[in-house]
Amino acid sequence: MVVILLDSLNRHHLGAYGGTEFDTPSIDALARRSLRFTRHYAGSLPCIPARHDILCGAQDFLWRPWGSVEVWETSIVRLLREQRVITTLVTDHPHLFEAGGENYHVDFTAWDYQRGHESDAWKTRAASSAVGAPEFWEAGPYALSRTYFADESDYPGPRTMRAAAEWIEREARHHERFLLFVDEFDPHEPWDLPPPYDTMYRRAADGPIWPPYATRATESGAVAPDAADHLRGGYGGKLTMIDRWLGRLLQSIDAQSLWDDVAVVLLTDHGHYLGEHDIWGKPKAPLYQPIVHIPMLVAWPGIAARDVDALTTSVDLFPTIAEVFGVAPRHETHGRSLLPLILGEHDSVREHVLAGVWGREVHVITRAAKYVRAPANGNEPLSLWSNRWSTLEVPMVPRLRMPPPDRRATLDRMPGSDVPVIRQPYRDGDLMPFWAGGEFTGNHLFALDDDPCEEHDLAGTAVEPEMAELLRTALLDVGAPDDQLVRLGLR
Question: Is the pLDDT of residue 226 over 80?
Fold first, then answer.
């Protein structure tokens, strides 16, 4: 199996999902031979929580904001290694090598880290060969790293795809069973681009390459119209660039004649706001469709291309991989295997999905509706569950490093585990992670089929109590902390 994870991939801008603004010929070509999942959703957001969902099969966001594989968990790649399946990670994702994500890579048989993206502390002095836009955290790591990119092929994304393609060409045929996991950070910011992508969708190369993470962005003046056009063009350029290099990886699968033997999955961790609902980036806000309704393409040996309209979510990849390779989880997981959908044995594997960011709204999504539940009376009670406390931080914003547990902490147990875990309660006024702060806009309810752009809020109508009860039941089903139910006014 080859799993290709592109970061911050907005499905609405992919040709395979009806997008027309930006060119994505390689993704579109993969879609023509794939099962195209049309109701696939993110679970835990943002980056590292989403990877926890995929690699550990258990939703993260109800218990903690951002952190490593915990001591009571066994990642899918460790399970595979124990059964002599070769597992390889090829990535340029810096958060996997920073505090908070630093042990996701260690279970792979081998890993290849292509350096220099975003916050990666790679270089200590500048070179003189830079291309692209110069502005980005002038005191930060990327300001130095980008000076080592002499042309397009030097950027981390292209290097990652080339390294993955070379692994296919040199290694794939030597292993009876393997999982190649390509965790590619593009089209994530910074939208720093070489020619011709720097002006492919925008008038000038110079300008902002990182959007403000803002709600009411144009209304408040945080994003001017010219900046909005420039930023959208930057995202599009990064998307088209990484799509081109994805084509290099797909060509290697062609050249090795592997389509009859290898399953290829393309997915993302979450989407990205590019002005929809006047939101930019990934700020503190409800999870509207551009960020939570995500693409997934599955090219499966012997299975013809078609649309799969079943409801699915990120944690479903773990049990799918486990079933393919004949391994069983050791900790409590929340996913449903996709194999019955892939093989056409069933039309659905779940009735709803849960999604959210720790400390923010909790969402329950069905085929027909999305219900967004905000805290009922202040953002408390709320607790953080983790035994890897020192890693709970946002590396790029050191002042937001979580304080250690204090006298309020107790020992508890995760569902299905006998391992003691530190449970730290928080109250309004305590330091919180970036994504957990800010004001709430109340509950929201949208009929997705009739209102795909989520313009007509049905919260407060006769439908809301039914969705609130579904959310309460869904939280109980996964053993969510009791303070989540109290915080949301569901108990």
Answer: yes
Give yes or no: residues 14 and 149 share one domain: yes
Q: Is residue 9 part of a domain?
A: yes
Cα angle 65-310-5, degrees, rounded to a multiple of 5:
45
Closest to 433 in 3D by CA, of 16, 58, 48, 149: 48
Predicted confidence at residue 127, as pLDDT, reads 86
Which ranges of 256-374 does DSSP label H, i.e. alpha helix?
Answer: 289-292, 317-325, 339-342
The reply to whether 440 falls in a domain is yes
Query: How many Å separate Cα 366 from the centre of its chain?
Result: 20
Q: Tell me: do 129 and 175 sit in the same domain.
A: yes
Mean pLDDT of the chain: 94
CA dihedral (160, 162, 166, 169) positive or negative: positive
Q: What's residue 389's pLDDT?
A: 80
Same domain, 329 and 437: no
Half-sphere exposure of 425 (CA within 13 A, CB side): 14
Q: Is residue 352 part of a domain?
A: no
User: At 294, which CATH number?
Assistant: 3.40.720.10
pLDDT digits (tens, 9 = 90+) for 173-216: 999 999 999 999 999 999 999 999 999 999 888 888 999 999 99
pLDDT of residue 403: 78
Q: Bridge-partner residues for 456, per DSSP?
A: none
Size of the chain, expressed as the number of residues it contains: 491
pLDDT tens digit sequence for 105-154: 999 999 999 999 999 999 998 887 777 665 555 557 898 899 999 999 99
Find the angle CA(222)-CA(226)-CA(231) to the nearest 5 degrees. 75
Burial of 84 (0-12, 13-18, 19+ CB in 10 A): exposed
Domain of residue 451: give its range.
362-487
Q: How far apart are CA 254 and CA 163, in angstroms?
A: 16
Is 420's pLDDT higher than 70?
Answer: yes
β-bridge partners, 40: 312
Q: Which of 482, 1, 38, 33 is nearest to 296 (CA)?
A: 38
Q: Are residues 94 and 212 in the same domain?
A: yes
Cα–Cα distance, 200 to 197 (Å, whole number): 5
Per-residue pLDDT tens over the stretch 343-402: 999 999 999 999 999 999 999 999 999 999 999 988 889 999 999 887 666 656 666 667
Task: Report phi then psi at 117, rounded to 5.
Answer: -85, 145
| Nearest by Cα to 281 from 225, 214, 186, 209 | 214
